[in-house]
Design a protein that fits this description.
Blueprint lengths: L5 E3 L5 E3 L3 E2 L5 H14 L3 E3 L7 H11 L7 E6 L6 H15 L6 E4 L7 H16 L6 E4 L3 H10 L6 E5 L7 H10 L2 E5 L19 H10 L3 H11 L3 E3 L5 H8 L8 H8 L16 H4 L7
Parallel strand pairs: 3-4, 4-5, 5-6, 6-7, 7-8, 8-9, 9-10
Antiparallel strand pairs: 1-2
Helix pairs in contact: 1-2, 1-9, 2-3, 3-4, 7-8
């Protein structure tokens, strides 16, 4: 079985580069998917309060029989639970559903620029949880350079991670440069461009001729090539699937190397077109939803 290489976060915590995601995975299949991912070799599971499947993720981890300290568990606080006391309670809700005493990484799901005061209070609460040893690392998701700049100006802990949409068609290179400068690990959601497969886009990454040709040369799939690209660029990636064959395929990316020319060819595929929602469009009025108690 492959051993997942890890990245050292800015506070010394080791995080496996490759994580298993459960966004939009229905609760009734989440437990089996997580159990299968851990059987295949994943040791990093990424979920979120707003996915409404944390309980099933925890059950999958327990059923796997793998020791808790061997699994890196990451989850996210939803905007409805921003604010100092509310975010402290959000930890209790997530940890309770996951069935764990401590989280490896807890991040804010969106910057919520329309109420950034709440975002700052939420992040200060993450700092308190970090100081108290309830979480091993803290971070953010979908933060743009201006959000990071404001956060860093008004809080004391540099995020360990920023989880952002990142695939060959949307690479956010300016944001990645900010991460590199500040010591923040770039973590890619939709890392193989799954988001290009729905929403009516004209091009899917899986059909891209450049990616398919590179894949052919390595005897791999386009998805495997994209994941290898992330890893060789030093990024964490969170692919998701519910199908055992695809779960295994996405993990089988540690036995080949892309050439510098192939990496450059993938870098050249950037369209600058975001597939997911603009972070500035996420407001409490439009996206607020109650996160249930344990």
């Amino acid at each position: 079985m492959s051993t997942v290489p890890s990245v050292t976060l800015n506070n010394g915590v080791e995080m496996p580069f490759l994580g298993f995601g459960v966004f939009q995975t229905p609760p009734d299949v989440t437990t089996a998917a997580v159990e299968e991912a851990l059987r295949v070799g994943y040791r990093h599971i990424d979920t979120a309060a707003a996915y409404f499947n944390e309980r099933e993720v925890g059950e999958g981890i327990r059923r796997s029989g793998i020791a808790r300290d061997e699994v890196f568990v990451e989850t996210k606080v939803w905007i409805s639970d921003y604010g100092y006391d509310a975010t402290l309670h959000a930890f209790d809700k997530s940890a309770g559903k996951l069935g764990v005493d401590r989280l490896d990484l807890l991040i804010l799901h969106q910057p919520l620029p329309s109420r950034f005061d709440l975002t700052l209070d939420a992040y200060r609460a993450l700092g308190k949880l970090l100081a108290d040893g309830k979480v091993r690392a803290i971070g953010v998701s979908n933060f743009m350079p201006e959000h990071l700049e404001r956060l860093l100006k008004e809080t004391s802990v540099v995020p360990a991670v920023n989880q952002i949409e990142l695939h060959p068609y949307f690479q956010q290179t300016a944001l990645q440069s900010v991460h590199a400068e500040k010591g923040i690990v770039t973590q890619a959601w939709s890392p193989i461009g799954g988001i290009t497969s729905y929403g009516g886009g004209e091009k899917r990454t899986f059909d891209d001729s450049t990616l398919l040709e590179i894949a052919r040369r390595h005897g791999k799939s386009a998805a495997q090539v994209m994941l290898r690209w992330h890893l060789q660029k030093g990024r964490s990636a969170i692919p998701k699937s519910t199908r055992p064959a695809r779960i295994a395929e996405n993990f089988d990316v540690f036995d080949f190397d892309l050439t510098s020319e192939q990496i450059a060819a993938i870098d050249a595929l950037d369209t600058g077109v975001r597939g997911g929602p603009d972070p500035d469009s996420i407001t409490l009025e439009a996206y607020g939803r109650e996160i249930p108690e344990v």
